[in-house]
C-alpha cells in the first residue's frame, strides 16, 4: 500500500509546472516522504521526460551600465543580467564586465568585456563559474563561440546540465575559418580544424543554432552560414536565399529539428526552413510570415534571439523589445527590457531544486 501511495504522489509531482521550481520546493517541505520522492536519482529524469520541452526560465541580457571612478563620471560599462520569465532566480543577478554569447543545455557561455575572448561557463543554479584556458590564438578580431553538451549525439538533454560540455570557438582572422574545441573532461583546447575561406566582413556575434550534430554560425554580410559538424569536425558553407536581403537575421532550430532562419523585411517577419530534395540538394522554403507593426529599420543585428522548443523570437528596436510567438503570430512588448539592453539570450532548462541547498534534507 505504501508503494502504491508513493507512486501516486510521484505522479502528482511530475505534473507540477517545469518553470516553477518554487512550487517543487514548497511541495518538498510538506512531509519527509514527499521530500524523499523528489530526492530520488530518477525523479529529475522522469520529470524531464514528462514535460519534454525545457521551459524558458528567463533571459540573459547584455546591458550597458553606468560606471563612476576617479577618471570618468557616468562612464558606460557592460554587464550580463538575468530577467526572469518564471519564479526561478539565479544566485547571482549580474556579471559585471561580461557579455553572454550563448546558452544551451542549462549552461551559459560568457566572455569578458571588451572583446578579448576570455571565456567562462556559468551554471545559474549552483553559481559555479568555470574559467576556460586562453584560446590558443593571437587576439582574434572576428569570432564567435557556442556551448553544447559533450554527449550531443546520444543525450536527450533532460538532465545533462551537470555533465561534461564542449565549447566551440570559431574565428576568421586568417585565410581560412578555423575552429578550436574545448572539452571540460580534457580541460584543454583541441588543435584547430580549418574550413572555407574567411569572409571579408567577419562573423556575426549572435547565438548559433544546434541542428543534429552540427552547430551553425551566421556569417556577416556574405548571406551565408558556417556549419560545423561536431562528430567529424568538418566545416561547410550554407547559402541563404539571395533574394532575402536584410540586416536582421537569426538562425533557428525548427520544430522538426532542422535548420531555419528568420528575417525582417520592412515590417514583415519571414521564417524559412531548409529542406532536402530526393537528389540530396538543400533548398529554402518560406513557412511563415508575420506582420510586426514596426519597421525593421530600427533593429540592430545584435538585438535578436530565438528560444527553440517554445518557438518564440525576440527583437530589439529603438522603441523597445518585442516577443513574437511563431505559432500564434502574436507580438508582445517586453516590459523588463529597456534602452540599456542591447542583446538577449533565452535561458532554457529543466530545474528541480537542490533540496540540500535550501536546508531540506530527506530522511
What's the quick description here?
Pfam families: Beta-prop_AT5G49610-like, F-box. The protein is mainly β and 363 residues long. The chain has two domains: 2-47, no CATH class; 53-348, Neuraminidase (6 Propeller), CATH 2.120.10.
Would you write up a description of this structure?
The protein has 363 residues and is mostly beta strands. The protein has two domains: 2-47, no CATH class; 53-348, Neuraminidase. Helix content is 10%, strand content 44%. Strands 8, 9, 10, 11 and 12 form a five-stranded antiparallel sheet that branches. A four-stranded antiparallel sheet has the order 3-2-1-25, with no helix packed on it. A four-stranded antiparallel sheet has the order 4-5-6-7, with no helix packed on it. α1 (2-14) crosses α3 (32-39).
What structural keywords apply?
five-stranded antiparallel sheet, 4 helices, 2 domains, four-stranded antiparallel sheet, mainly beta, 363 residues, Neuraminidase, AT5G49610-like_b-prop, single chain, disordered C terminus, F-box domain-containing protein
Amino acid at each position: 500500500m505504501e508503494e502504491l501511495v508513493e507512486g501516486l504522489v510521484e505522479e502528482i509531482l511530475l505534473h507540477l509546472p517545469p518553470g516553477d521550481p518554487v512550487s517543487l520546493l514548497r511541495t518538498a517541505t510538506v512531509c519527509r516522504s514527499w521530500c524523499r520522492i523528489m530526492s530520488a536519482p530518477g525523479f529529475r529524469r522522469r520529470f524531464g521526460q514528462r514535460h519534454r520541452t525545457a521551459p524558458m526560465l528567463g533571459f540573459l541580457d547584455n546591458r550597458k551600465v553606468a560606471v563612476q571612478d576617479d577618471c570618468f563620471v557616468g562612464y558606460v560599462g557592460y554587464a550580463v543580467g538575468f530577467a526572469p520569465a518564471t519564479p526561478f532566480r539565479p544566485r547571482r543577478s549580474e556579471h559585471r564586465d561580461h557579455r553572454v554569447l550563448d546558452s544551451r543545455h542549462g549552461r551559459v557561455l560568457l566572455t569578458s568585456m571588451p572583446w578579448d575572448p576570455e571565456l567562462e561557463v556559468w551554471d545559474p543554479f549552483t553559481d559555479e563559474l568555470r574559467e576556460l584556458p586562453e584560446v590558443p590564438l593571437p587576439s582574434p578580431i572576428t569570432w564567435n563561440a557556442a556551448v553544447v553538451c559533450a554527449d550531443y549525439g546520444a543525450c536527450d538533454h533532460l538532465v545533462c546540465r551537470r555533465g561534461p560540455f564542449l565549447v566551440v570557438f570559431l574565428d576568421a582572422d586568417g585565410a581560412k575559418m578555423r575552429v578550436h574545441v574545448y572539452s571540460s573532461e580534457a580541460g584543454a583546447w583541441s588543435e584547430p580544424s580549418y574550413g572555407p575561406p574567411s569572409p571579408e566582413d567577419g562573423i556575426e556575434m549572435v547565438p548559433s543554432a544546434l541542428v543534429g550534430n552540427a552547430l551553425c554560425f551566421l556569417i556577416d554580410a556574405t548571406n551565408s552560414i558556417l556549419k560545423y559538424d561536431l562528430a567529424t569536425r568538418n566545416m561547410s558553407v550554407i547559402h541563404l536565399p539571395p533574394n532575402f536581403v536584410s540586416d536582421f537575421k537569426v538562425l533557428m532550430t525548427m520544430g522538426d529539428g532542422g535548420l531555419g532562419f528568420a528575417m525582417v523585411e520592412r515590417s514583415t517577419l519571414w521564417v524559412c526552413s531548409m529542406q532536402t530534395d530526393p537528389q540530396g540538394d538543400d533548398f529554402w522554403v518560406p513557412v511563415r510570415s508575420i506582420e510586426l507593426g514596426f519597421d525593421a529599420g530600427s533593429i540592430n543585428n545584435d538585438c535578436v534571439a530565438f528560444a527553440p522548443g517554445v518557438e518564440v523570437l525576440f527583437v530589439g528596436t529603438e522603441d523597445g523589445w518585442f516577443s513574437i510567438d511563431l505559432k500564434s503570430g502574436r507580438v508582445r512588448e517586453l516590459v523588463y527590457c529597456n534602452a540599456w539592453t542591447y542583446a538577449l539570450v533565452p535561458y532554457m532548462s529543466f530545474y528541480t531544486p537542490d533540496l540540500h541547498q535550501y536546508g531540506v534534507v530527506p530522511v
